[in-house]
Amino acid sequence: MRRREFIALLVGAAAWPRAARAQQPLHGRGQRPKTHRIALVAVASPVAQLTETSPSLYTREFFLELRRLGYVEGENLVVHRFSAEGDPRRYSEVAAAAVRPAPDVIFCFTSRMVKVLSDATSVIPIIGYTSDPIAFGLVTNLARPGGNVTGVSNEAGVEIDGKRLSLLKEIMPAASRLAVLGPLAFWTTPYWSAIRGVAGQLGLSVVGRPLEAPADEAEFRAVFARFENDRADVVFVPDIPETYTNFALVAELADRARLPMITTSRHLLKARTLMCYGPDPDDLVRKAARYVDEVLRGAKPAELPYLQPTKFELIINLKVAKAFGLTVPPTLLATADEVIE
Prior knowledge:
Blueprint: H1 3-22, E1 36-42, H2 57-68, E2 77-83, H3 91-99, E3 105-108, H4 111-120, E4 126-130, E5 149-153, H5 158-171, E6 177-180, H6 184-187, H7 190-201, E7 205-207, H8 217-229, E8 234-237, H9 241-245, H10 247-257, E9 261-263, E10 273-278, H11 281-296, E11 313-317, H12 318-323, H13 330-335, E12 338-340
Parallel strand pairs: 1-2, 1-3, 3-4, 4-5, 6-7, 6-8, 8-9, 9-10, 11-12
Antiparallel strand pairs: 10-11
Helix pairs in contact: 2-11, 3-4, 5-7, 8-10
């Protein structure tokens, strides 16, 4: 049985008792509500944006789901907020600050920061929204993580990335140079090495260079200049904090360079986005919030399976395809979950 199918079955079997617990009151009748304390750790988003009204759809959906579960900041929830402000050199400092107030649980949006947090504490439960947790050394077993870290992954193995690149080749069969927009930490993981191998099998060579810290506007402009010099045909924009937080700038630079983009998340659908193939990010964030609820009710991260997506959506932007003189095969359009015209 494939790993994703096994996790799906396991999670499905465990879903009903967790759902039942979610309906239980957070405090007894006549008792004052218990105040829970969580730490929210971001890599790039400013602290001021880590709220229920945030322009970041991820953060907003996280807090809305907590509210649906009965947790309201200022009433029965205290939130400690931390951000590295896009500077990886601050990760250890931020992790230490997040651990210091000893929150009941920490929620973090990226693999690299979750790893630093797990090095900073082996006691405080950590819920992550990450890519492949095994590739990043966060857990060794998806079904039973065994430590203080669990969460949700927006990746389900290299085969999904192979599928994404195969779909790209159906739309752009002549493409041979794939630019990848991501920091050095993304480019140097075993997971990325596997993706590069899949790209090579499809006749795609990776061009450009990684983003260097700090990933500010000048650095994004320099990387896109390198993409143009390397005559990239298309740019792959993964759903990671650096790209998500700066996506308005990314879209502007892609437009100026006349580079179509492919992405992993519908939240990155902007001008020049040719195709998106990936899981529903809102669904994953809601599941992460439910895991926070589970932990606040007494569940142990070691026993909560690290969830992987089981459903993926394909979105094709015909307007962008036509702008680049591309013809999308009718068979591919027929399988798309959404077609933007």
